[in-house]
């Protein structure tokens, strides 16, 4: 006999009516239940898809399934006995109801029969069958309103026929939506819940008192009109097809990120696209009249509107809309991009009927378009920047945004109270410019030397001006003719350096010539001064320091067109070198040493400044005579070894920077010794404000570069200073250098050193003269050599004779100053001396600086180890060598500088020393410096050597050296 799957409506001991799946077989006059079908039975049964789905749904609320889902207990009996009422009402009953509803809907398809199944019996009869119609029943709420109040009833009809449920014995099957059985027929509704139907089982209508009528209309009746068919009397319900619009709201999401939220407005009510309602209702009350407007969702129109926004570049993100690519931006950038999108598409949105709103923000943001109009004009020393910003109808001077841009504040309040978000590009483009700009009215003024900051912003600028400025950095392409009477042949890089300084002069910029030591910074500077020299007044025919009358004559006939002298400030040890190089290279220029006792002659300083071309002075003199010097203007203010002003808090810096000069220049091989603050001090002296104030420079450059090695800040700083700093290393200009370059570096004595020297010189001269008179020249050789040697030692350093560690030496200071420069430039140097004690003094100073070094004297035992340490260690840059120990047998080609710190009249020994570095295998150009103390026996010997070139040969090779030198020459040496 064939088995049939049916659904039985039976009563559960706890839950009431439930559907269960049974297999039945046909008997003569009844049906016998063969099996309650469980999920595990499905593989053995040949059921169709519809039947299998019914079995699955029924088993979702089997006892076992309910215990597993809602209880930790394993025993179902205990679970049902102790079931909490709230758990049943709020969770279990709705859970069962949803599956019962799905089964009822499947039964409407008429593919499976439904029967009443009594718990105690296992047989079914045809009378137990429940008819399931294919159509839904309809429930209509009927409202009647009059002066006494409002009442409503429920009219039910099925297939067009009314169905009266009052006082009927109905069996409720599902609650939400409702389905019930009456007279073996199941009635199903689309939406109405059983709760709304139950009151009318024993009532004809429900009365709403007048007192609570407003509340009922605003809540219950409004929802009823929205969700169910309604017949109304005493108030109106209008079905509306128009009056719909779209809103695009900018507001924060749950993560407080700004997004676009689309909303659809039907009448006065707004709804999100994901709202599941198909009908919207608005209630309007005018006087005592209630009027409902009922809108049915237009899904096609909504889809078209959303599609239109996507065509404008928006994409959907979890119910919100964003311009493409916004996910990775921070909150302010997102907000700016949203506002920018609105501004760009405002007209299109308006034409499409889409309104823009802002919600849940503390501020109201401007969606107006933003335009920045910049015009730049050039004056003698300044760029005048006229910039205006337009936010829609508002025009605002750009200067008002200065605080925002410098402090990274992107919100700017407009006159109407709205807040504009400033574009990030404005910050990137102008934050490096504004710190240097000076406000004047509504304009910004930027000094000419900041032209690098404007190169990218050429709108409104005379481009020919920039083309002229480019000459500064393109000296090779724009050479300047050398002055005709320069007494030197400049190398090509020196000509370029001179042209660079001249172009700076033309544009009234200061510059830093930062070539390596030995490349001729002095010569390049003197060439510039000679090129710029102007004729002096004819009336000033003599030195004003020598004729008071001439000084007075000048005062009576002053002429503002006279070019004042250039003031060159340097360490004391360099005065003599500058004086010599002026005489050698630019003899047509008059130079005055404003140092020491010379200053006493400078009572008429104005006359001196007018008469002389160059005034040489020292940093110490400027500090001491600042009050006098500051009253005068100089043509050029030039600082040699300008690292002397690296400390901006020092008195030297404070006084030097306040001196008056039309033009400024600094010379140094080491513009940065310890920190970028060294650079700031020198650049600020040259072009005040070029790098901003100290606080700005530290924040913007020192901290990010020195602590974080920020490449962007490094490049920004290079861009600012590039036109004003010219640095060439020896390696870069090697092709222009001879294999060997020799220079004499003259050094002045310290005050106490000079006194000691003159005192000892007098004693030695008397002793030698007495010995010559008594013994003759030939027998006085030893006494002469001893006396001259003692004077040499005093010229080097008094402590070599006196043993006074506190003694000072001008030569020692100059040697150390030069050595310090070479260490900063990372060169290697050989230092030769004929006195081991001199090397020991340098050794102590070197150790105090913690520089690596090697030393080779007659006492050194492991020569090869010492030599290898110097040759192979790149950090070991100093080799102290005694002439006697290092004259032969050494190959020191890693060095490219040689210091001979106590030259004498034996060039053969010096040449042997030089050949330690300048020999086969040397791939670098070698610089040799001879340090000679001026006004000493060393300088006298140097002059004598120049006059008598054979002197050294005779002196060294002769058994009686003083046959080659006369008594008169000995006296001259000691004069």
Report on this model:
The chain is of the alpha/beta class and about 1000 residues long. The chain has 6 domains: about 130 residues, no CATH class; about 100 residues, no CATH class; about 120 residues, no CATH class; about 90 residues, no CATH class; about 240 residues, Rossmann fold (3-Layer(aba) Sandwich); about 230 residues, P-loop containing nucleotide triphosphate hydrolases (Rossmann fold, 3-Layer(aba) Sandwich), CATH 3.40.50.300. It contains 34 helices and 43 strands. It has a 7-stranded parallel sheet. A 6-stranded mixed sheet has the order 5-3-2-1-4-6. Helix 20 links the parallel strand 35 and strand 36. The longest helix is centred in the C-terminal third of the chain and has 25 residues. The N and C termini lie far apart (about 150 Å). About 5% of the residues have low confidence. Pfam families: Helicase_C, SNF2-rel_dom. One of its GO terms (molecular function) is helicase activity.
Keywords:
six-stranded mixed β-sheet, alpha/beta, Superfamily II DNA or RNA helicase, SNF2 family, ATP binding, seven-stranded parallel β-sheet, 975 residues, 6 domains, 36% helix, single chain
Output the CATH topology of the largest domain.
Rossmann fold
- Highest-level CATH class of the largest domain: Alpha Beta
Distance linking N and C termini: 151 Å
CATH level-two architecture of the largest domain: 3-Layer(aba) Sandwich
What is the CA-atom radius of gyration, in angstroms? 52 Å
Assign the structural class, choosing from mainly alpha, mainly beta, alpha/beta, alpha+beta, or little secondary structure: alpha/beta
With strands numbered from the N-terminus, the spatial order across the biggest sheet is 33-34-32-35-36-31-37
State the domain count.
Answer: 6
Share of residues in strands: 15-25%
The assembly state of the depicted protein chains is: single chain
The fourth-level CATH homologous superfamily of the largest domain is: Tandem AAA-ATPase domain
* Total E-strand runs: 43
The major pleated sheet works out as: 7 strands, parallel
Q: Output mean pLDDT.
A: 85
Low-pLDDT runs: 537-541, 547-560, 951-961
Shape: elongated
InterPro entries: Helicase_ATP-bd, Helicase_C-like, P-loop_NTPase, SNF2-like_sf, SNF2/RAD54-like_C, SNF2_N
GO molecular function: ATP binding; helicase activity; hydrolase activity
Protein name: Superfamily II DNA or RNA helicase, SNF2 family
Keywords: ATP-binding, Helicase, Hydrolase, Nucleotide-binding
